[in-house]
């Protein structure tokens, strides 16, 4: 039984291709080369000399889903013949031929009027396709980025030194089912309308996630600098950028609440690596408030004993130094005794909850100190000396516990909403992909599709 709101075609035929299955009876099935008049490799030319340079687009200017993202395009010195042979025109399709990732191999962008006005060419790691007059470029673009074609690219591409490679011949060999020209317009309008609607929903969910993340961060920052009681009497903290704090709170430097602040293995850590042994945490294992327990590297037990300075214990905190500096997590019981590489280590604090300290270290006020330091100057690299001088507003221990419990509950609720929104986005993306594939392979008949708002008015108003 058909579950789709759009009906199937009245009659189908066997495409002769197992993975394509049946296609509408009147559609043409054959290799893609039957539908294209140009299938050309790109150019790279020479380094620019400041005179008569040409923009040469690269695969890095293409997103995985086949859109342009042209921020800082390369300019090259091309000969007249190179420029003439690779100058892009509106409606051209540009395909990535080489990539170390199956997500990028075969990604295809369509040259818009704006891109064509840039008078640009394309690199030698890309292939330009120009469709014949009876095949709409927009429909070809949807088809090239559909699962049905990208799967063929993955199967056809050869691998050399970890790179998957396509060439013009392979691209021309992919099998496609092509409707008559008049029908192509209906399919393209349908996909445009439906994907636009789905993309709007995705954007709304992404905006919701961004707002939830901002609220989560603001909630933490307020709780660890102002407390939970809105009526509490405040006092000047004595620190300009911190402002007022509850009257009964203290202000201390990190070095005064931790018995030791040090750093993990920094000199040739790879020489200690073994296949199995003691986990050694790296920055990619640290997220805000938690340890990511995957992609561990391991060192031997002997190395862990010899490197006791960086060995971690239950309740210690680890802080990222570069990339996302200041990101902090507490060492849990199951990682007691592990080691770490190039992370700041804050030994379990004295008379301060390690979980409260982690919340503070992940707050905006702590991140400001990590980024700019006490004196307000941008820091090039977060180090032990900077960590020691981080200023922390501290409530009594009982209040620390209350704040930790409150934030655990509230951030858990927010994280659930964020997770649900991300799941919904994934479902929308899956639906978008399947809808495009269904339309370009004729599994649904959209010839009667009428875009919203384009219905004809009745004459008896």
TrEMBL record:
<protein>
    <submittedName>
        <fullName>Restriction endonuclease subunit S</fullName>
    </submittedName>
</protein>
<dbReference type="InterPro" id="IPR000055">
    <property type="entry name" value="Restrct_endonuc_typeI_TRD"/>
</dbReference>
<dbReference type="GO" id="GO:0009307">
    <property type="term" value="P:DNA restriction-modification system"/>
</dbReference>
<dbReference type="InterPro" id="IPR051212">
    <property type="entry name" value="Type-I_RE_S_subunit"/>
</dbReference>
<dbReference type="InterPro" id="IPR044946">
    <property type="entry name" value="Restrct_endonuc_typeI_TRD_sf"/>
</dbReference>
<keyword id="KW-0378">Hydrolase</keyword>
<keyword id="KW-0255">Endonuclease</keyword>
<comment type="similarity">
    <text>Belongs to the type-I restriction system S methylase family.</text>
</comment>
<keyword id="KW-0680">Restriction system</keyword>
<dbReference type="GO" id="GO:0004519">
    <property type="term" value="F:endonuclease activity"/>
</dbReference>
<dbReference type="Pfam" id="PF01420">
    <property type="entry name" value="Methylase_S"/>
</dbReference>
<dbReference type="GO" id="GO:0003677">
    <property type="term" value="F:DNA binding"/>
</dbReference>
<keyword id="KW-0238">DNA-binding</keyword>
<keyword id="KW-0540">Nuclease</keyword>
<feature type="domain" description="Type I restriction modification DNA specificity">
    <location>
        <begin position="246"/>
        <end position="412"/>
    </location>
</feature>
